[in-house]
Write a structure and sequence with these properties.
By secondary structure, the protein is mainly α. The protein folds into two domains: 160 residues, no CATH class; 84 residues, Helix Hairpins (Orthogonal Bundle). It contains twelve helices and no strands. Helix 4 crosses helix 5, helix 7 packs antiparallel against helix 8 and helix 7 runs parallel beside helix 9. The protein is globular and about 60 Å long. About 5% of the residues have low confidence.
């Protein structure tokens, strides 16, 4: 029988019900024995968000982003596997890939799953999900228009503030946007040095890895990368301005 402990984590709660649960149940049910089928996994769980809820939500939304351009290439799967290894380790990637491939073969109602996820995750967790989706989209070195549009739709359903969305997106656009560092800190290039420092402190607090402590060490590790990008943006602005 397949072992999904890495991705179920501390258990599944709300992700067992609704459209997310149906997708997960079908994906797992097709990979294990008939005595442990998808119907079992589609039963509603608790309303608390567990580590497993977040990771399964990531897999479903990852499939949405990968399907955005209407084609799934072997090279893209290789890139995604590398992303999974880097963020969740060899065992995590080994368990996730069969689930992901199964999800890619299903029809996914992007709006419905994003609505369910958005209703059950807190704001910090939703920000981290968007960060991970951008990581996936950028894994091949570029976020293409179709991927960006999909992530934006998900963000809107999550009711993410526009400035927060632009802040998460900015580091992936640094090769084409000279103001990426300012957008990362949610400020305009015209602000004073004191306002830059104030914005940095605010953003460092908003994206501190402890905000997603309950979602497991691997998710916290990924959140640390976003935290570092805030520091990178701040250092970039300080260098340009000659700030102390």
């Amino acid at each position: 029988m397949a072992n999904f402990a890495k991705w179920i984590g501390g258990g599944l709660g709300w992700a067992l019900g609704g459209p997310v649960g149906a997708l997960i149940g079908f994906a797992i049910g097709s990979m294990i024995s008939n005595s442990d089928n998808g119907a079992t996994y589609a039963i509603g769980g608790s309303s608390n968000t567990n580590e497993g809820d977040f990771k399964m939500s990531l897999l479903v939304l990852m499939a949405c982003v990968m399907k955005a351009d209407g084609k799934i290439l072997k090279s893209e799967l290789a890139v995604v596997k590398r992303f999974l290894v880097e963020n969740f380790g060899e065992q995590g990637a080994l368990e996730a890939m069969p689930l992901l491939k199964n999800l890619l073969e299903q029809h996914i109602d992007e709006s419905a799953v994003a609505q369910q996820i958005g209703n059950n995750l807190n704001y910090s967790s939703k920000l981290e999900l968007l960060h991970l989706l951008f990581n996936i989209a950028y894994a091949d070195g570029e976020v293409v228009d179709a991927e960006l549009a999909t992530i934006l739709r998900i963000s809107n359903i999550f009711r993410i503030d526009r400035l927060d969305f632009e802040s998460i997106k900015a580091p992936y656009m640094k090769h084409k946007d000279d103001n990426w560092a300012y957008k990362s800190l949610e400020i305009e290039p015209t602000v004073t040095d004191d306002e830059v420092k104030k914005a940095y402190r605010k953003m460092a607090m908003k994206y501190h890895p402890d905000k997603v402590n309950d979602l497991g060490e691997e998710v916290k590790k990924s959140a640390t990368e976003k935290f570092r990008s805030i520091n990178e943006a701040y250092e970039s602005i300080k260098k340009k301005r000659g700030m102390a």
